[in-house]
Design brief:
This protein has 351 residues and is α/β, with parallel strands linked by helices. Helix content is 30%, strand content 18%. Helix 5 runs parallel beside helix 7.
Length: 351
């Protein structure tokens, strides 16, 4: 944002689960306020003089237990509501929301007999038996994955996914009530420098990298053939800059426009683990395919990036091999603890 010419104010909780104090890469010349997005007074004060918000505040990850449900709802839903109420009162009219691919649930699938279908959640008995591919809900047959567009039916299948969809709905409420403009960026699997180390709430790339840093091979769930779209954090940052410009120029007031932020080139989880292990070097020879699973995980989620390319001018620039080679040796962010109880990060406020 700064490179794009914006004057930026940051608001971040610097939760010990993710940060061991203020990150060294944040210049003292940049204004950073340490506060919780759920604190109405702190959010109201931070919005003084602001005309646009990039909202990245979230508790992330699938969740590791049922006990996480209240935290996801509190941080992601209540925090967003607090922010949007203050924006409305302050007359802040532009919003870029970091949403997620998880709002789609399972991705798009085609059945040879029934055409495009939406599979039911995978049965625990199938997963236990090592049957990981979803079945056709009509005939029980095998399916072929397809790409997901923004107009696909939304079907969140875990607490994090539900909370991210709730953020989009709240942004829609705010836009309709205020006439504001909002863009929801549905990030796919983000990876890159400064990801947090040693937390089960992080993305899969950071979990694999943390294992390698500890001298252990990455542990890959299921059979490693789950497909994802890995998009580099630099590309994600650029998507935010372009979305903020679209809020001023092209997005219709009073509604939320959603876009996939993805590379358009899918890879399997196993491929990410292998590529990262090879690039890291000097340690474990190969990842371990565990056959373990988590209820609430989805099998394949592959996006179409065409709407973002056409309407925002966004295309990912960092290729998979290039990005993984860099990430294998990039600095990770140290944390001060392992149990998150406050947001991962809070809004970036642009003026």
């Amino acid at each position: 944002m700064v490179a794009a010419g914006h004057e930026v104010r940051g608001l971040d909780s610097l939760t010990p689960a993710v940060h061991a104090g203020k990150p060294s890469y944040i210049s003292n010349e940049l204004e950073l306020r340490v506060a919780d997005v759920r604190d109405p007074a702190a959010v109201d004060d931070a919005l003084d003089g602001v005309d646009a918000v990039c909202h990245l505040a979230a508790m992330v990850g699938l969740g590791v237990s049922l006990a996480d449900l209240p935290l996801y709802a509190d941080v992601n839903v209540t925090g967003t509501a607090v922010l949007l109420e203050a924006m409305g009162r302050r007359g802040v009219s532009r919003l870029v929301l970091s949403s997620s691919m998880v709002v789609y649930g399972e991705g798009a699938y085609d059945c040879p007999r029934h055409g495009p279908v939406r599979p039911l959640p995978r049965a625990a008995a199938d997963l236990k038996a090592g049957i990981f591919e979803p079945r056709c809900p009509a005939c029980g047959g095998e399916l072929a994955w397809a790409t997901v567009r923004e107009d696909a039916a939304l079907d969140p299948r875990n607490a994090y996914a539900t909370s991210k969809l709730a953020q989009e709905h709240l942004a829609g409420n705010w836009a309709r009530l205020t006439g504001g403009t909002a863009v929801a960026l549905r990030y796919h699997n983000v990876y890159g420098p400064r990801m947090p180390r040693d937390t089960p709430y992080s993305g899969v790339a950071a979990i694999f990298r943390s294992s390698l840093e500890s001298g252990m091979p990455p542990r890959v769930f299921e059979d490693g053939r789950q497909r994802r779209d890995f998009v580099h954090v630099r590309d994600v940052a650029e998507s935010n800059v372009l979305a903020l410009a679209a809020c001023s120029d092209t997005v219709t007031a009073g509604a939320v426009c959603a876009y996939n932020v993805a590379s358009g080139t899918p890879h399997t989880i196993g491929e990410m683990a292998t590529e990262l292990t090879v690039a890291f070097g000097g340690g474990p020879v190969e990842p371990i395919i565990t056959g373990e699973y988590r209820l609430g995980d989805v099998r394949h989620i592959v996006a179409s990036p065409e709407a973002a390319a056409t309407e925002l001018g966004f295309r990912a620039r960092t290729g998979f091999a290039e990005g993984v080679a860099e990430f294998a040796h990039a600095a990770l962010r140290s944390s001060g603890g392992t149990t998150p109880r406050t947001p991962r990060c809070s809004p970036e406020l642009a003026r």
